[in-house]
Design brief:
single chain, 4 helices, mainly alpha, 99 residues
């Protein structure tokens, strides 16, 4: 199998790392799949089903957060703090958002 080396800007590298982590893939496999998508004649997005699941999860969690916040603002704030911490650990929040 041929090997390809290239340089990336730091911001692009960090963004790719976050997306690979979110897709639960090693960086090299994620990049290979993105490149395969780029030459796919059907032009479909490789991770679209995961995006649909994410969108549905966000909607469900938003409804739940609204309900919990109405009953116990303290529980909502504690849950949001825990969620921010977990997302920050996984590189899914920017530096400012993780604080």
């Amino acid at each position: 199998m041929p090997k390809v080396n290239f340089r990336l800007e730091e911001a692009l590298h960090l963004a790719l790392m976050r997306r690979a982590r979110a897709a639960n893939l090693p960086l090299s496999r994620f990049i290979r799949q993105v490149l395969e998508q780029a030459i796919d004649e059907r032009k479909r997005y490789v991770f679209s089903s995961q995006d649909e699941i994410l969108a549905t999860s966000i909607q469900i969690l938003s409804i739940l957060a609204t309900s919990v916040g109405g009953r116990s603002p303290e529980a909502l704030e504690q849950g949001m703090a825990q969620a921010r911490s977990i997302l920050a650990e996984r590189g899914l929040l920017g530096e400012e958002e993780g604080r």
